[in-house]
Amino acid sequence: MYPDLAAYRTISGSTKDQIINVLSYDWPLSARRIYNFVKKKYSNGVTYQAVYKAISQMLAEKILIKSKEGYLLNLTWIKEIHDQTEMIRVNYYSEQRATLLDNENMDSIRVFIFKTWFDVEKYLYYLQKNYVMKSKEKQIICVHQNHEWQPLFYFRADYNWYEQIKKLGHKTFRLCSGISAADKWASDVYKKMGARVKTNAKCADSSEIMVFSDLVIQVYIPEDLKKKLDEALNKSKMLDQIDLHWLIQNVFEKDTEIKVVINKDAKIADEIRKQTMKQF
Predict the structure, then answer these.
(1) Shared domain check, 273 and 148
(2) What's the mean pLDDT when you consider all of the chain?
(3) Residue 86: inside a domain, yes or no?
(4) Which sign, positive or negative, has the C-alpha torsion 22, 27, 29, 31?
(5) How far apart are CA 118 and CA 173, in angstroms?
């Protein structure tokens, strides 16, 4: 569950907001030092008792943690705030509000339009994380793509993601139709992270696909972007020949329309998993 941003970051001058701002720049701090900073920085009539009460509430809400040296912001809470703000940003760049779908109450098919490829990728990351990390059952995640480009830009995020799902017993099978140097390098990266990967596979003809839980996600990349990515990766025989800045400007951050279709259908999801795993 995401934290309530409005409760802590939108009420100008609230004691909790002031405590967060103080601990964003200096930590750990004792309750007395937090009080002194708040009083000095904001020149208000807040009492020590009010600050201490707010600190106690924020400890209970896991916004703060306490060490031997004093209080500091909880890194888990900071990460949740980051995830939510990224999701908000993606929403405002999509043509239709892209929600983290409710597994029990979502309609069978949802369609979203995104303005950039990077926004699609961020949305799918948070959607996948929302589903898989909450799953009580071990998941088999399947991905069909034309190229394995993500580690070029998201290496650390990919590494952290695969470390998390390995601990939970989830497995990933990735099919890639490409055979470029980047595809081969990325497939080796994913294999070392614990995924099963096959390049030069027959997949992603009309759309790229991701399957997890009972969701089937199809991403329809415009032909001009697919062609630009093909040409950029296929002509580069070595990784250091890939112009990442050009790719960002002309492919991944290029203003366009990318349709994402999400279908909640357990039978179709299982069939795609079955056909994917047959290729290994």
Answers:
(1) yes
(2) 87
(3) no
(4) positive
(5) 22
Helix axes 117-132 and 151-167, enclosed angle (nearest 10)? 10
Q: Are residues 123 and 12 in the same domain?
A: no
Q: How far is CA 196 from CA 46, 127, 147, 190, 264, in A?
A: 57, 21, 15, 7, 24
* Amino acid making up residue 129: K
Inside any domain, residue 154: yes
Q: What's the pLDDT tens digit per position in 125-152? A: 888 887 888 788 899 999 999 999 999 9
Q: Tell how strand 215-220 and strand 258-264 pair up.
A: antiparallel
Domain that holds residue 19: 5-73
- CATH assignment of the domain containing 67: 1.10.10
Burial 255-273 (b: 16+ CB within 10 A, else e): eeebbbebbbeeeebeebb
* pTM of this structure: 0.70
